[in-house]
C-alpha cells in the first residue's frame, strides 16, 4: 500500500510505499515525523501501482523489485509497525 502523510504539528509532508494495515478496519500503522518526533497516520492510502505496467502491484506479473526505490531504504526507526516488534522486513 502507498500512503500520504502530513505531520499535524509542523505540517511536513511525505509519502511511503510501505504502509501496512492494522487488523482494525480502515486503520494503518503510522510513521514518525523526522522533524517533530510525533507519530502520524496517513491521510490517504492507495494501492501501489506497478512502475512497468501500471496495474495494481500485488496482482501484476512483473518483477516485484521494481515497485519501490532501492535507494530509499525502509526507516524502521520511524515505522510504528517495526517499533511494535513486528518488523516490516
From TrEMBL:
GO molecular function, one term: zinc ion binding
Xref: InterPro entries: Zar1 (IPR026775), ZAR1/RTP1-5-like_Znf-3CxxC (IPR027377)
GO biological process: negative regulation of translation; oogenesis; translation
Domain 3CxxC-type: 1-85
GO cellular component, one term: cytoplasm
Subcellular location: Cytoplasm
Entry keyword set: Cytoplasm, Developmental protein, Differentiation, Metal-binding, Oogenesis, RNA-binding, Zinc, Zinc-finger
Family to which this protein belongs: Belongs to the ZAR1 family.
Protein's UniProt name: 3CxxC-type domain-containing protein
Originating species: Dreissena polymorpha (Zebra mussel)
Amino acid at each position: 500500500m502507498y500512503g500520504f502523510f502530513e505531520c499535524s504539528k509542523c505540517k511536513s509532508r511525505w509519502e511511503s510505499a510501505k504502509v501496512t494495515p492494522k487488523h482494525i478496519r480502515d486503520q494503518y500503522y503510522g510513521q514518525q515525523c523526522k522533524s517533530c518526533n510525533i507519530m502520524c497516520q496517513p491521510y490517504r492510502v492507495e494501492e501501489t501501482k506497478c512502475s512497468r505496467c501500471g496495474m495494481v502491484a500485488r496482482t501484476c506479473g512483473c518483477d516485484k523489485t521494481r515497485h519501490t526505490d532501492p535507494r530509499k531504504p525502509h526507516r524502521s526507526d520511524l515505522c510504528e509497525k517495526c517499533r511494535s516488534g513486528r518488523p516490516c522486513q
